[in-house]
Amino acid sequence: MEIANSIEPVQDGRIHIELINGPFLYELRGSPAEYKAALDFAIERGWLWKHESGTYVKFTQAGDEVQLYAFDILALDGDDLQALSLSVRKVHLSRLLARRPDGIFLNDFE
């Protein structure tokens, strides 16, 4: 959502999908499956609307006000982190989110 928030919409609020998936896959190093899951989740929650062509999305009114809170990280760069303690995973998560876009927050809940 935050990647989409950082993009200036064109025409009637369109955000071209390649402007979202490029940064997600190449800058944030997300996998295609993670990208699809995140996009599907945002659409299911009513935050984004995707055109039937699949080439662009638009924010819904609900999507204009979304903030994301990260609690835990279970995998990073293909490595399974589940065997690590929560406190160690939180360190990994805070390092990852140090280069985060605005609107994604680390939650210190343990």
Kindly describe this structure.
The chain is of the alpha+beta class and 110 residues long. It has two domains: 65 residues; 44 residues, no CATH class. Helices cover 35% and strands 17% of the residues. The chain contains four helices and seven strands. The strands form three sheets. Strands 1-3-2 form a three-stranded antiparallel beta sheet. The model has no long low-confidence stretch (mean pLDDT 80).
The total domain count is 2
Question: How many distinct helices?
Answer: 4
Strands of the widest sheet, in order across it, are: 1-3-2
Choose one word for the global shape. elongated
Derived structural class: alpha+beta
What's the total count of β strands?
A: 7
**Contiguous runs where pLDDT drops below 50 for at least 5 residues:** none
Query: Using only CA atoms, what is the Rg?
Result: 15 Å
How much of the sequence is in beta strands? Answer: 15-25%
Largest sheet: 3 strands, antiparallel
